[in-house]
Each structure stands twice: as structure tokens, then as C-alpha cells.
């Protein structure tokens, strides 16, 4: 497993991480436990919250799948538990590996927050091959929140978004490549890479082939 992961990581660094929430800072990141609802195994709010804007916020991810369905929810208060009841961005499909910066977040009509309101953002994507993958970030709203530092929230080359073919939440659909019109070769190479990662039985040769498939 480690060998396969390492070989993949060396050749295609972004393929190994499912997805990662970089900004606002995640509660924590444990790649092996990302499938644990609601926050990828981090159930306790961080004492260190990111000050995040009431309008025009950004959320920076790093994508390790060639395509993924993504949804962003929020729960209000100091510890929403698993009550992420408000949708900040409904399900869409993202394609391309690497840095992905979602922009222009604002709260839905009728949701009022003031400076100092605490909340937790939950980002979910679909899993390998089904179920969800979760990352959460604890924030404090502020009308004067600073922009993310330069380079923290950017888009990698080739990253793009398209409408999702399903309105279901990503954790209730199967792998995006089976439910979108993404090219067959892309989903094929993704599956190869993902099985090498997940099964851990690939060994160097197969991991190398999977990494090559990703690059191509
Ligand atoms: C928000 O969270 C911070 C740190 O976790 C805490 O000190 C503060 O009292 C909380 N604010 C409110 C309004 O509860
Ligand atoms: C608190 O968060 C800030 C910004 O994300 C980070 O630079 C700092 O290292 C964090 N501190 C701790 C103790 O986690
Ligand atoms: C929204 O945020 C982005 C990224 O921080 C910034 O470049 C842009 O100027 C902001 N737009 C407005 C209208 O504030
Ligand atoms: C990244 O790309 C997405 C999809 O095209 C776009 O909505 C977003 O504004 C871009 N982010 C930045 C920081 O330009
Ligand atoms: C939010 O604020 C608006 C305008 O001040 C007000 O009309 C509305 O009732 C508030 N909504 C809630 C849920 O408090
Ligand atoms: C999927 O995530 C949403 C939002 O957090 C949650 O309400 C729902 O229960 C989750 N579904 C499953 C099957 O875990
Ligand atoms: Cu994955």
C-alpha cells in the first residue's frame, strides 16, 4: 500500500489525496478517514477559526480525482455537529487535478449573520466509488475579513466546472465519472488509478501505469 501510494505520489502528486480543503483551513486532514461523515473523522471544532467574509468568500481545494461532484454546506453556531443544513453551493461537477478555488460565496436570502457569528463549512465530494468524502473548516464571519493570502486560493491549469447531471448530494451518488458525460478514457484511467490507490495491491508496475494514465 505504502509502496503503491509512494510511487503514485512521486509521479503524480495530486492523485493521492482524494481532495483536500486548504482554505479556509480544515479542522484536520486524514486521507484514510475522509469518508467518515460529517467531517472526515474530525468531530471537534477547531479553537482556531478562520475569519471569513459575509459576502464574496472563497474556498480553496486541492483535487485528487480527475472529476468529482462537489457541494458546499454550512452549519451555524460554535458546534453544529452534523447539522449542515444550509447549502452554500449546490452540487456541481469539477474536472481536472490540482488547485481549485471556488469564488463568490454569499449566504442565501434570509440567512442573517453578524460580525463574530461562528459557523462550520462542510465540503463534500463523491467517494471511490460511492459514498461521500468530507472536509470541514471552522470559521468566524466578518464583514472585514481579509482576502486569502496570495497563492492560497488559485485554479490549476485545466481545472473547470460543469453542471452536474444529478441534483443529488455527492455523498448519495456514485463516482462522478459514471454519472457525467466525461470521456470514457478519462473515467477509465481514473478508475485504474483509484483502484491502485484503494486496493493497495498495485505494486510498482501497476502504480506506474496508473500514474502514466493520469498524466495522459
Ligand atoms: C466563536 O468561537 C471562538 C473560538 O472558538 C470563541 O472564542 C467565541 O466565543 C465564539 N463566538 C461566539 C459568538 O460564540
Ligand atoms: C491558526 O490558524 C492560522 C491560520 O490558518 C495558522 O497560521 C496558525 O498556524 C494556526 N494555529 C494553530 C495553533 O493551529
Ligand atoms: C471578490 O473576491 C475576489 C477574491 O478575493 C476579489 O478578487 C474580488 O475583487 C472580490 N469582488 C468584490 C466585488 O469584492
Ligand atoms: C476557478 O475556476 C472556477 C471555474 O471556472 C471559477 O468559478 C472560479 O472563479 C475560479 N477561481 C478563481 C480564483 O479565479
Ligand atoms: C434577516 O434580515 C432581514 C433584513 O434585516 C429581515 O427582514 C429578516 O427577517 C431576517 N431574517 C431572519 C431569519 O432573521
Ligand atoms: C450527505 O451529506 C449531507 C450533508 O451533510 C447529510 O445531510 C446527509 O445525511 C449525508 N448522507 C449520507 C448518506 O451520509
Ligand atoms: Cu480518492
From TrEMBL:
Residues 164-185 are annotated as: Disordered. Residues 16-158 form the Copper acquisition factor BIM1-like domain. GO terms for cellular component: plasma membrane; side of membrane. Keywords: Cell membrane, Glycoprotein, GPI-anchor, Lipoprotein, Membrane, Signal. Residues 173-185 have a biased composition (Low complexity). It comes from the Eukaryota. It is a lipid-anchor; GPI-anchor. This is Copper acquisition factor BIM1-like domain-containing protein. It comes from Lachnellula hyalina.
Amino acid at each position: 500500500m505504502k509502496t503503491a501510494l509512494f510511487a503514485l505520489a512521486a509521479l503524480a502528486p495530486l492523485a493521492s489525496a482524494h481532495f483536500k480543503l486548504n482554505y479556509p483551513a480544515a479542522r484536520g486532514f486524514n486521507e484514510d478517514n475522509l469518508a467518515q461523515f460529517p467531517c472526515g473523522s474530525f468531530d471537534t471544532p477547531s479553537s482556531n477559526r478562520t475569519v471569513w467574509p459575509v459576502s464574496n468568500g472563497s474556498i480553496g481545494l486541492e483535487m485528487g480525482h480527475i472529476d468529482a461532484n462537489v457541494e458546499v454546506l454550512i452549519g451555524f453556531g460554535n458546534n453544529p455537529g452534523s447539522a449542515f443544513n444550509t447549502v452554500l453551493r449546490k452540487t456541481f461537477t469539477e474536472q481536472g487535478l490540482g488547485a481549485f478555488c471556488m469564488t463568490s460565496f454569499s449566504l442565501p436570502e434570509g440567512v442573517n449573520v453578524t460580525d463574530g457569528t461562528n459557523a462550520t463549512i462542510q465540503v463534500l465530494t463523491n467517494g471511490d466509488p460511492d459514498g461521500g468524502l468530507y472536509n470541514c473548516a471552522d470559521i468566524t464571519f466578518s464583514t472585514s475579513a481579509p482576502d486569502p493570502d496570495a497563492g492560497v486560493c488559485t485554479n490549476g491549469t485545466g481545472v473547470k466546472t460543469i453542471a452536474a447531471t444529478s441534483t443529488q448530494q455527492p455523498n448519495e451518488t456514485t463516482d462522478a465519472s459514471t454519472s457525467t458525460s466525461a470521456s470514457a478514457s478519462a473515467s477509465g484511467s481514473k478508475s485504474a488509478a483509484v483502484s491502485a490507490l484503494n486496493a493497495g495491491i498495485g505494486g510498482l508496475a501497476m502504480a506506474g501505469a496508473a500514474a502514466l494514465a493520469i498524466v495522459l
